[in-house]
């Protein structure tokens, strides 16, 4: 991960000190000489010695295939991340070098179900890598916890918000938010003749999370009404993108955070702190998501109030930014694949006569097409990239390869999801790959969008519930037509991924009340 890692840090330091001192020869009268010898030595170190070491048989990853530039420096991966194209570039690396590729001086990427099981799976899961230290808020948050025992204790608290009962309790809030979305889609179309889904759907997603988890106390007014003048959606995405990029220059992270101007990018941390304080001040107005963490049952572990800000940050990014991006992807896929839009509408029309009443929306779990459409959209548009894990002291064997202690390993989600061997015709949007004998079959293939094992996504049931309700209500009540000039290939080529999915192209549509035949 880091520029100085790759097993070379001790070697680097000793070499540096020894060569600068040797050149200086103890001449106390000329300290500036020491400075210039040191500068020359540091440059030599970075330009010659470190790369030579990283390419040498003394380096633990010598045997691993990968491009020379990646073997000597983390900079290529940093560059791809800054451009939001890591998922595409890592796929290209695997196409060229095979199922195992060295992507950085100390990082190896694997592409196989067996490696998923070794790296992330329950029994053998490796620890989270130091990339998870890239945050500087006070308090301890689930997402950033690396120690498995501490993590498991906090996870028990979070799990309470995602029990079947808890999720059923969010149903009315979710329905009300989609009703609000529908009004907003119609109003923006009426006002401007069209509406940009890239802008509106993430606003909807933040509003929905605010209602469901914060009883609406995180921010006010709603982003769909205000059009987000404080740029909450954009700031969350920028925050996520910066964190992802900094994982490649991790040793410089804390230094970077002190640079004037960079701190302003952490405005999102302040939003999270204010959201937590507001919830604590006002309290829940129903059994909202956060209220489950402060359960009054004395036998249950509770969250410390001091940890709420960092957990609020996880909620706003992990729970809202993700669903926002996936909502755009799923609607885009339906517009780009009218055959599947028609199939989904048919399924919904057969299930409901007219727009479904709120209570009817509780029974969408068994409908094959709506669930398969979501699963397929998550395959092609998974928001999170590779999730780095750390090889323990003893080293480990993955796919028959020995990895030395301290190596960062991962399975790149985007590259895995378009692997021909596991997903034939991988770039084709084909929900039928998730349907078996007329039923939704999520385990027909291995989807990695929510990761696997002890650190997997705690919110996945809520994701499906929320997106199913959105699709069912919107498609039974509205007609959505792309505006003239809709270019599916161009839109999809503009998808960028840096832990957050962003879109360089707008998705303009016209929305009208549905004309029923
Ligand atoms: C489409 C939507 C979502 C996707 C694709 C997604 C994906 C993921 C993935 C891949 C991870 C593992 C991250 C890692 O190991 O670094 C994760 C973790 C997590 N997700 Fe999600 N997520 C989504 C929505 C949500 C929602 C709605 C919530 C909460 C409201 C949520 C809360 C979390 C939390 C708290 C973690 C950390 C879990 C742990 O360490 O135990 N996510 N998510």
UniProtKB/TrEMBL annotation:
Key word Iron present: yes
Pathway of action: Secondary metabolite biosynthesis
Gene3D superfamilies in the record: Cytochrome P450 (1.10.630.10)
InterPro entries, per database record: Cyt_P450, Cyt_P450_E_grp-IV, Cyt_P450_sf, Cytochrome_P450_monoxygenase
Keyword vocabulary terms for this entry: Heme, Iron, Metal-binding
Pfam families in the record: p450
Cofactors demanded by this protein: heme
Listed GO MF terms: heme binding; iron ion binding; monooxygenase activity; oxidoreductase activity, acting on paired donors, with incorporation or reduction of molecular oxygen
Binding-site positions, heme: 457
Family of the protein in this entry: Belongs to the cytochrome P450 family.
Protein name: Cytochrome P450
Organism in which the protein naturally occurs: Mycena belliarum
